[in-house]
Amino acid sequence: MKLNRRAFMGTGVAVATLSAPMVHAASHGKPKVVVVGGGAGGATAARYIAKDSAGEIDVTLIEPSRSYYTCFFSNLYIGGFWEIENLAHSYGKLAADYGINVVHDWATGVDRDAKTVALAGGGSVPYDRLILSPGIDFVDGAVPGWDVSAQNAMPHAYKGGSQTELLKAQIMAMPEGGTYVMVAPPNPYRCPPGPYERISMVAHQLKANNPTAKIIIADPKESFSKQALFEEGWQKHYSGMVTRIGPDFGGGNVTVDPAAMTVDIDGEVVKADVVNVIPAQKAGLICEAAGLTDGNWAPVDGASMVSRMDENIHILGDATNQGDMPKSGYSANSQAKVAAMAVRGALTGSRVFPAKYSNTCWSLIATDDGVKVGAAYEPNEEKIASVSSFVSQTGEDEAMRKATYEESIGWYEGITTDMFG
Amino acid sequence: MANTSGLFMSVLGGAALVLGVAYGWTARDYRIAELDALTERLAQVERSNADLADKAEQATALEARLSTLETELATALQAVEDAQQAETAPAVVPEADAETVLADAGDPSFGDPAKGEQVFGQCRSCHQVGQGATDRIGPHLNGIFGRRAGAHADYRYSENMQMMGSDGLTWEIDTLDAYLENPKALVSRTRMNFAGLKDPQDRSDILAYLRQFSASPQNIPEAAPTAQPREVDLAPEVLAIVGDTDYGEYLASECKTCHQQDGSDKGIPAITQWPTEDFVVAMHAYKRQIRPHPVMQMMAARLSDEEIAALAAYFAQTE
């Protein structure tokens, strides 16, 4: 295996030297790849480039957090099925085992002409190829009355870590018979089934600890991911606890008052004990700062995840507008492998194969009641298009649901190993 | 008068004293006699008890003797019967022997090998048994009875399986039965990704079937090799494709999102180090929707024959 790769890389470098001398001349030695954002997209891309180039490419990963808390599976922590420590991952192996230069700092801007990334801590990092995988930020004013300064009173818990812990603490401290309100986001947003899996997990906690409590969802969307599966599950496990107010009943017309802890849903004011505001989303700020967005998202070419605005910058994951793929950790991980291959091909002349993408999202509804939805994707000229898909069925037996849940745990182990080594 | 009266009182008093002493002696004698009688009775009872113990011992000895005589008689009768049968129908003898051996395996409800062969169908994509059986995804199962767990040379077992073997786990009817019922309950991180056979009869049948391919105890007839039909009928040229491992490595990156790269198995089976042909057959079985899993069907659906061969070639060589 290793011999194979070395022999193969040797050929690749020779080809690169002949066919792309400009690349090497511009970079004074080894080609440099800078990756901004150490999540499912960025960590995977950094790891694959470092691993598969076997020292031929310098890889720098810029990520402010020293521990990465996955957003996926954070709902299971809220439901009591997963420990917070098991959501946390270190960048140690990427640095020690893969030789990646891990820089814990904020990337504040990109000079696309000079090909450098500016750091909040001062200085800048040069690149031959840049990979941006910044995830999401929230659209200003998306929910009137809410901004980031109110996220302690009304947490979003839609970026992993402290917000997740805060939301769970608030749910556990709800008074008997209290009210939890979720303000659900409009499309497109990170993790389409995420808000509804969260509702399931909150209901699971409340059923055990506070069975007379109520859950209200104010939702601007007509329909949502795995809707039939979630609604069947809520009826089966949490009958009478969950009320969803869709757009027909004003679920899209919401204002919040964090000081008073009230939510105004189309004129009806609800006093709540926990308000989970998940605002409308947009690409992580660095994309906008680098001038790579069109509207809220960064458009990319599905053949290699390269920006449609800069041929030296690839963009991954939630921040992109790529076509049919959902914004998910799985998608970002899948896209990262295509981008890593394209970047290696461009910098070292290694072989580049046609892009293939896939995604599967598992959700837990109750104990041992797991469901999933997934699709395979391939790029065309216009976008990344779905070529086949599947979804769990209503009325599946308990054994299949349990197997699906266990499979999701296997996936968590698999993808986090794929990201962090 | 007073003197007469005094004398009378003295005589009376003396008589009373004599009577009293006499009574005292009498009562003492009476108790001594009674004690003697009780002691005698106690001795009798003790003797009687000793007799009983002797008799019980004798009874046990007699019973043992009787049992021996009965066994000898039964053996003699059986020998006569066998001799008669051997005279009339000698060809039947080996079958009768085989049945006797199976019955001797310890459980009167021991299963039906013919049914077991059918049940074994679900094991066959990973395990071979019979003449010419080799290790595939799982080890071959010839001689499994009496074998130490994880001890078959040349097969790479999970660490847990090896540990269980080192700790003394040996495959006998009861341990195999427990393992087949719930593999991960017995060997928690076994690489065998099989939910288990819940029906005790299925397990008995499958063990009766497998039992035929183990050498011990003696007199198991040589069974025919198991049929090895492939799950999907693949043209020889499809199986003959030599995969491009570099392409396979790229394609495999998609598999590694879920399947553990170190070959461990947590809710999702390990796919490293499969024999190339088994990998190819399995992927085509997903592609044609003969195997049921929706994610795998989706993944396989868009893979060409060359791409499946590339993946098989890559995974066969992973460490």
Automatic annotation (TrEMBL), chain A:
SUPFAM superfamilies xrefs: FAD/NAD(P)-binding domain, FAD/NAD-linked reductases, dimerisation (C-terminal) domain
GN (gene name): fccB-2
Residues of the signal peptide: 1-25
Keywords associated with the record: FAD, Flavoprotein, Signal
PANTHER family xref list: FAD-DEPENDENT PYRIDINE NUCLEOTIDE-DISULPHIDE OXIDOREDUCTASE, PTHR43755
Keyword 4Fe-4S among record annotations: no
UniProt protein name: Cytochrome c
Annotated ranges, domain Flavocytochrome c sulphide dehydrogenase flavin-binding: 355-420
Every FAD/NAD(P)-binding domain range: 32-145
Automatic annotation (TrEMBL), chain B:
Gene3D superfamilies, per database record: Cytochrome c-like domain
Native organism: Marivita lacus
Keywords, sorted A to Z: Coiled coil, Electron transport, Heme, Iron, Metal-binding, Transport
InterPro entries: Cyt_c-like_dom, Cyt_c-like_dom_sf, Cyt_c_1A/1B
Sections of the chain in a coiled coil: 35-86
Domain Cytochrome c: 111-214, 243-319
Alphabetical list of Pfam families matching this protein: Cytochrom_C, Cytochrome_CBB3
Entry annotated with the keyword Iron: yes
Name recorded for this polypeptide: Cytochrome c domain-containing protein
